[in-house]
Structures are given as C-alpha cells and as structure tokens.
Write a structure and sequence with these properties.
The complex is a heterodimer. Chain A is mainly β. Chain A has one helix at about 40-50, and strands at about 15, 20-25, 35-40, 55, 65, 75-90, 100-110, 115-120, 125. In chain A, a hairpin with a 5-residue loop joins strand 4 and strand 5. In chain B, the strands form five sheets. Chain B has a five-stranded mixed β-sheet with strand order 6-7-2-8-9. Classes of the chains: A mainly beta, B alpha+beta. Strand 1 (about 15) of chain A pairs antiparallel with strand 16 (about 395-400) of chain B.
C-alpha cells in the first residue's frame, strides 16, 4: 500500500523522457574509462515516478541536481567497454555553457549492458536511458 | 465553479458579511449569541500554532488571524469551537447564488466576502442606491454591509465602514477617504500589521504619507502593496464566477433518516424529477452531487462521477447505488439535494466505423471521465517527439499530458 503524502496531486504538461540518472563510477587512472559502477536501484527509480529519476538534464546542457538520495546498487565491476564516443553540442554558447559528454557502452560483471556518460561541465557521471 | 476574467471595469460593490463563520454558527446554534466565542482555524500541516479563524464581534483585542494563544491571553471564559468549513462553504455558496441571480458579475473572495460588478445595471435597477437595496434584499438572515467604490479595495473599505443592511459609496479623493481607517483592515498577515503598529503607523494616512520605497525597504513587495492600498489604489480585476449549467432537485425527509432503504427511493425520485426537466431532454450528465443536512452534524456531501455520461434515471441511479454501498453516513439526513452536472451537449452518439478513430474517441471519453472524477486533468501522458534530431538523447522525446 502506498502511503498518502498529504500533498495535492499535481501534473505537469511536459515531462522529459529518458532523463539521465546520477551514478557513481570508479575510473581507470590512465584512460579515464569506468572500471566499476553503482547504478540506481530500479525499484527506487520507479518509486520516484516520472517526477524525478536521479538527476535530470536542463535544456542548457547543465545537469539539474534532483533526487540525489535515490538508492544505488552495490559496486559492480565493468568487464567490457564495448564502445565510446564523445558528444559536443551547443558549442556556440561558449566553453562554460556547451555540452560535452563522453559516452561509454558498458557490459557489467552480471552481464547487464548499460550506457554511461561523463559530463564534463559538472564533472559527474550519469546513466543514459535510451 | 470555474472563474474567468470579465475584463470589464467600473464601479464595484463589495458585499461583506463580517464574522461570517461566527454568524453561521449563531444562526445554527442561537445559544452562542452574546457569548464570547472563538472559532479556531484548521490545523495547518507543519504549523506548530493554530490561529483564530473568527470570533464574536464584541470580543475586544481579538482579531481573525491572530495566534490562538495570544487571543486566549486577552480574554477569559472564551468558548472554543472547531471550524465546520463544509457548512460555512455551503452557506456562503447559497449567498453567492442569490447574488448571481440579481447581478451577473459576482466574484467569490472567500467566506463572507464577494465583489459584484454593478456597471450597466442602471437600466435594470436604477442608480447605485437601488442596486444596493437589491443586493441587500438578496441575502437574508445575515449582518450584511455593502460598499461601492472604483476598485475592489475601496469598495471593501466602504463596506467595512458601513452599517448593518446599509450601503456606502466612496466619492471624492480615495486617499483622503482611506486616511482615517486603522491599518488593521489591510489584507496582509497579522504579523505585518503588528510591524506597522510597531513603526507607529496606526492609520492609513500615516502609511500613505511615507514614500513607497521606504515601505518596500522594510516589507519587500508586500510593502509596495500596503502603500498602494493605503492610497486607495488596487489594480485587481473583477474575476467573476462562470455560470455552470446544472440541474438540481430537492426534497425534505418527513423524519431524519440514516436508513439507505429510505434514502435510495428518495434519490430515485429526485433523479426522475431531474431527468424529466426540459433542460435535461435528450442530454447526458457526467456527474451527480448529493448534499444533505445531517441532524446535529455537519452537512454531508457526496460526488459521484459516472463512468459513462448518464442519460437516464436508471443509469445514474445504478452508479450512485454502487458509490453508496461503501459509505457510512455521518448521521440521519434531514433533507437531500441532488445536482446533476457536467451536462453534455449531445443528444446521441454516432460511433466511427474506423477502429483507430474509435479508439481515440474512447480514450478521450476516459480522460474526460477521469477529469470529472479527479477535478483536474488526469496524469495521463503520451510520448511525443520533441527534437528527434538532437544528439542529446533526453531531448528527443517527452511525455506530454493528454488532453481531450
């Protein structure tokens, strides 16, 4: 049974889909590639609903801190880095405002595939739903 | 009830029923007349203290909005009463309805206060004095004050300064009219009033004499508003209630009853009467509301949203029966009012032969039903392409609220 929060139900007109969720990453000191990750627990993400899944990206490219208290899974080692690519967008906004992300396609020790990126503007790591 | 800005400007009348919750309680229980009484404000979530919602008019030093502890320290032998908001709301809705029957532009400004646009009524009622008489005669059994001014604030102050059943009109320079009133009538929190007194600003004239910036510096945006009000300025438009078409039927029980076997035939009879009304001819209702006075209790209300718009007595009765099944009545009902709302304009329905169109129509009907039941747009979304070409994945698609 879901407990009543006591708040009036509120619906927004537009909700972002596939918003990035904050994760924790241990990186290789030389290459900067992830070697272990802690992903948001699926049930917790579902509980937070469409309102907040980890952190959500702002239109300007900055990543908006949202629910930073979403529980994360235990550390899982990265077995394979399948692919990696860099996205640079909105360069015309200047260095401080442009979006710069380094994406990694990862296979974890439990066989799960996931895509993570390093946001250069904030320095944080996110899982990218697709 | 929906509201909409009329956009019209002109003389506005304020119908003010001072101490409305107290007046309502005394009308219901005459034994409270002449006794010191405080109606305690509803307990706000997260608030440690409770405030005074209303009090007897002759209770010196006690004003609505004041912390209860402070009020109790000023007077002895006060009777405290929990608020019966549904009852106050129901009673005031009747007042508003009576006003709407006389004048089309009526704004609900909270319990005990309404603004009425009285421009263009000269041809119907005559001059302002006649309009005041019409408004005063619309409401019975309450201490009623009426004020007329060029804006809502002036009309309110005029009403607050008038006498029982009488009207007062602001003429001449508004600032001069306002200057002798106490700052306590300002519609700002109790704490702000106390701060004004603390600065030695007891009357409106004291506030109006100061530069606007000085008040802004102390009170922020609220200071600017205080200054404008003290000078009789108020740019708020009159936002009148929109008339929503409803069909209502009423009956009184010979004896108060809490027995469903007596209440259901009464509902059936009300439905039969409602559906035979000419305005319901070949039309459907999306919801029904039941209201009843309960013996020595607060009024009882029940809203039933029909899954499918009901076009007949039997259809509506079935839905109401289902809803009543799981409900415990608060006490014996003395009377019953049934109101059918959300009236559809359609006399029949033609379904599309194309299945996709049919599915879309069914979805729209479901959304409308949920809207009627929840009282707001339901949280149903559809996936829409936003910037499918974007290299940033979260910008490609979004969930957009589905509206019928």
């Amino acid at each position: 049974m879901v407990t009543d929060t006591g708040k009036a139900p509120r619906t927004g007109a537009i909700k972002p889909l596939n918003a990035p969720a904050a994760i924790q990453v241990r990186v290789d000191g030389e290459t900067g590639a992830p070697v272990a990750v802690r992903l948001p627990v699926l049930a917790a993400s579902a509980r937070s609903g469409g309102r907040s899944r980890g952190r959500q990206a702002r239109p300007g490219g900055q990543v908006r801190p949202d629910r930073t208290d979403a529980p994360l899974s235990p550390w899982q080692a990265v077995t394979i880095v399948d692919d990696r690519w860099k996205v640079v967008d909105e360069w015309w906004r200047g260095e401080n405002q442009q979006i710069t992300r380094m994406y990694y396609s990862l296979v974890l020790e439990n066989g799960q595939r996931t895509t993570a990126f390093h946001d250069f503007s904030g320095g944080a790591w996110y899982r990218q739903a697709s | 009830m929906k509201t909409g800005w009329t956009g019209a400007r002109g003389p506005i009348a304020c119908v003010h029923l001072p101490h409305f919750p107290w007046q309502t309680e005394v009308a219901r229980r005459p034994e409270f007349e002449g006794k010191p009484l405080i109606i305690v404000g509803a307990e706000a979530k997260g608030a440690a203290i409770r405030n005074v919602l209303d009090c007897s008019p002759d209770l010196e030093g006690v004003v609505p909005g004041m912390p209860l502890s402070e009020a109790l320290s000023r007077q002895r032998g006060i009777t405290l009463l929990e608020p019966d908001m549904p009852f106050y709301r129901l009673t005031f809705d009747r007042v508003l309805k009576a006003l709407c029957e006389r004048c089309p532009d009526v704004e609900d400004d909270g319990l005990g206060q309404a603004y009425v646009g009285i421009w263009g009524l000269e041809g119907l009622y005559g001059d302002d004095a006649h309009v005041v008489r019409v408004l005063a005669n619309a409401v019975h059994g309450f201490d009623l004050r009426i004020g007329i001014g060029e804006n809502k604030w002036l009309s309110y102050v005029a009403a607050a300064g008038s006498e029982h059943g009488r009207g007062r009109k602001v003429t001449g320079e508004p600032g001069r009219f306002m200057s002798r009133f106490q700052v306590d009538i300002l519609p700002v929190p109790y704490e702000s009033i106390q701060r004004l007194h603390g600065f030695g600003l007891h009357r409106m004239g004291d506030v109006a004499a100061l530069p606007k910036g000085a008040l802004q510096a102390q009170f922020g945006p609220e200071g600017a508003r205080i200054w404008e009000l003290a000078n009789g300025m108020d740019g708020r438009p009159l936002v009148s209630r929109q008339q929503v078409e409803v069909v209502s039927e009423y009956l009184t029980f010979p004896d108060a009853t809490a027995n469903l076997s007596a209440i259901l035939p009464a509902i059936e009879s009300l439905l039969a009467r409602a559906y035979t009304r000419p305005e319901m001819s070949r039309r459907f209702a999306r919801e029904a509301a039941l209201e009843a006075q309960v013996f020595r209790r607060s009024p009882w209300t029940l809203k039933v949203a029909f899954k499918e718009p009901a076009g007949s007595k039997n259809h509506a009765l079935f839905a109401i029966k289902v809803k009543l099944d799981g409900i415990v009545l608060p006490g014996p009902l003395e009377d019953l009012r049934l109101t059918l709302g959300g009236l559809t304009g359609e006399a029949g329905r033609q379904e599309s032969m194309w299945s996709e169109v049919r599915r879309g129509e069914q979805l729209q009907v479901a959304v409308r039903q949920l809207h009627a039941r929840l009282g707001e747009p339901p949280p149903i979304y559809q996936v829409r392409e936003m910037e499918p070409w974007s290299r940033i994945p979260e910008r490609r698609h979004a969930l957009v609220q589905l509206s019928p």
